[in-house]
Amino acid sequence: MRIWSLHPRYLDRQGLTAAWREALLAQAVLEGGTRGYTRHPQLERFRAEPDPREAIGDYLAVVADEASSRGYRFDRSKVHRRGDPTRRLEVTSGQLDLEWWHLRQRLAVRSPAIADRWADIATAEPHPLFIVVDGPIASWERAPAPPPQV
């Protein structure tokens, strides 16, 4: 499961669809509707919220908005709860940088034209649910760290 902290505009078609499916799975987990993935580390930041179900709903709504802007029709009725539109979860700069590196690696293989579109972006914008704070890679992250910059 990958719940990107990056703005969904950076995702290719496959990535956007996967983000939707994986966030729907996260919603099911947070609602107690599935037995799998209940201990998935990516859910820690949502569980830390006063209402995790609203937080994941807010996340899903932005993914659906991005899909709509591209002409896709994601079923918004699958977003069960929404919360305060001003809610922001923190994501560290280290986590965002790691995810940006990780996504660019995937895009280079799967969607080179999209990788080229974003090649000059050094620092990606976060998903609108998140606000960036200085800090290292999140403790819940399981992806390998990018190679050091030389």
- The N- and C-terminal alpha carbons lie at a distance of 31 Å
SSE-based structural type: mainly alpha
Instruction: Based on Cα principal axes, name the global outline.
Output: globular
What Rg do the Cα atoms give? 15 Å
Helix content: 40-55%
Number of DSSP-assigned strands = 2
Beta-strand content estimate: 5-15%
Strand order of the largest sheet: 1-2
- How confident is the prediction overall: mean pLDDT? 93
For the biggest sheet, the summary is: 2 strands, parallel
Order of SSEs:
HHHEHHE
Query: What is the count of distinct domains?
Result: 1
Q: Name the poorly predicted regions.
A: none
Q: Count of helical segments?
A: 5
Question: What features would you highlight for this structure?
Answer:
Pyr-dimer_DNA_glycosylase, mainly alpha, 5 helices, Pyrimidine dimer DNA glycosylase /DNA-(Apurinic or apyrimidinic site) lyase, 43% helix, two-stranded parallel ribbon, 150 residues
Describe the protein in words.
- The model has no long low-confidence stretch (mean pLDDT 93).
- The chain has one domain.
- 30% of the residues are buried.
- Helices cover 43% and strands 5% of the residues.
- The chain has 150 residues and is mainly alpha-helical.
- Strands 1-2 form a two-stranded parallel ribbon.
- The radius of gyration is 15 Å and the shape is globular.
- Helix 1 runs antiparallel to helix 3.
Explain briefly what this protein structure is:
With 150 residues, the chain is mostly helical. It is built from five helices and two strands, in the order αααβααβ.
